[in-house]
Hints:
Blueprint: H1 8-18, H2 26-47, H3 50-62, E1 69-71, E2 76-78, H4 80-93, H5 107-121, H6 126-146, E3 147-149, H7 159-171, H8 179-187, H9 196-199, H10 207-224, H11 233-241, E4 243-246, H12 248-252, H13 273-286, E5 298-305, H14 307-310, H15 320-323, H16 327-336, H17 347-351, H18 353-359, E6 362-366, H19 368-373, E7 380-386, E8 391-396, H20 409-437
Parallel strand pairs: 5-6
Antiparallel strand pairs: 1-2, 3-4, 5-7, 7-8
Helix pairs in contact: 1-6, 1-7, 1-8, 2-4, 2-6, 2-20, 3-4, 4-5, 4-10, 5-6, 5-7, 5-10, 6-7, 7-8, 7-10, 8-10, 8-11, 16-18
Amino acid sequence: MSRPAGDYLDQLARFVGQTPLQDIPAEVLERTRQILVDTLPVIAWGMREPQPSALVAEQLSASSEHGPCWVIGAGRTATPLDAAMLNGMAGAWLDYDEGNFLANGHPGIQVIPAALAVAQARHLSGAELLATIALSYEVVARIGMATQTKLIINPHGTFGVVGSALAVARLRGLPAESLRNLASLAASCCMATNRHTMLNGATVRNWYAGHSGFMGQMAVRMAQSGLTGPSDGVNTTFSLVLGDGFSPQVAVQDLGQRWLLTEGYLKLYPTARYVHSAIDALHDALGQAGRPVLADEVERIDVQAYKLAAFLAEQRPRDWFGTRFSIPFALATLLVGGRSGLDAFSNEAVADPAVQALASRVRVVEDEDFTRLYPQQQRVDLQLHLQGGKQLKGACHITSGEPGRPHAPADLARKYKDLAVPLWGASRAGQLQDALMTLERCPDVATLVDFLP
């Protein structure tokens, strides 16, 4: 099938392959650095969990190759394939990583692990890594925005395979004219993911992000070996297989001028992003009380939400993983109090009778008007019914952390400190932050810091 010169897929491929660092706006590079600062300790904490830790031991003991790439938080190094897979999985494990409403997913954790691993293996500069992450993130985000994703599909391991492949191709110096075929081939290697993994507490969902980093590299190897993709694998996969429609025009509209990377979010709670909208509505309601509200005072909580948030209505998650996808649990654990951050979404919190009792009194339903407003608004209304008949009402229109409602810098600094200091100590945590915020000055990413592997 013939194609017009410079079609949308060619534009996306050449955007990653040919855009120099100096053509990327300063605010985009600054946001990319911030995403890296947020992401690396999130990966390290995920790597400490029993299942990722066990998989690291199994995968690396079974491999006859031992490469130079960090397995962050494991004290190990590995080949680029293994490192990208393990870091991607660990980064998604706690659902504490960066994301993007417009992109319908988490572009950062799809591309950062592969880009970092390949840059380390090839001893590339921080400047080249920084540019590559920014550009490949943008492709993932734009394909996600252009896709009418089926509700059942979890976005990890889908759009990210294309972005990961293009990132690796740039870092490996593949010719720009070969990247269109690579993008089409990579899009034909996405996973058939599903959101029931979230509702069922199935941690295989976290592997999906690892697939992006692994399969992106494999797609490059296949393309270099002469394998080809269909004429337009991106359109086919995302309009017919994983989506109900795909708009090539949306994918390239204002490419290089509007940067979706600057329109994403960082998380202050380790839950699915849609849960944050309900948490914001809860804080709005509590702010009207003028005093602390005790969990025992709450008779019930009614929540009206957009569809993707209403999907997360499970009242009794079975373990810590299920808490990430339960609005009733999130509201209950924060109201019961005594825990914060990761502790509020732990197995201990799941087993707390007070949390269980309150979560059973939270009802979440979809409001179709709110669904029509999404994603421009993330509307959630909440009514807190207290003993004695008093009601407290709260609402969220724009979720905290969005560009129109940014987090306070002190809150983001607190998150980094809470995660990084227990892992590496205050001095090293500061050293890592400084190194990432001046990444373009590093001549060899393999020597960025000496304590992460």
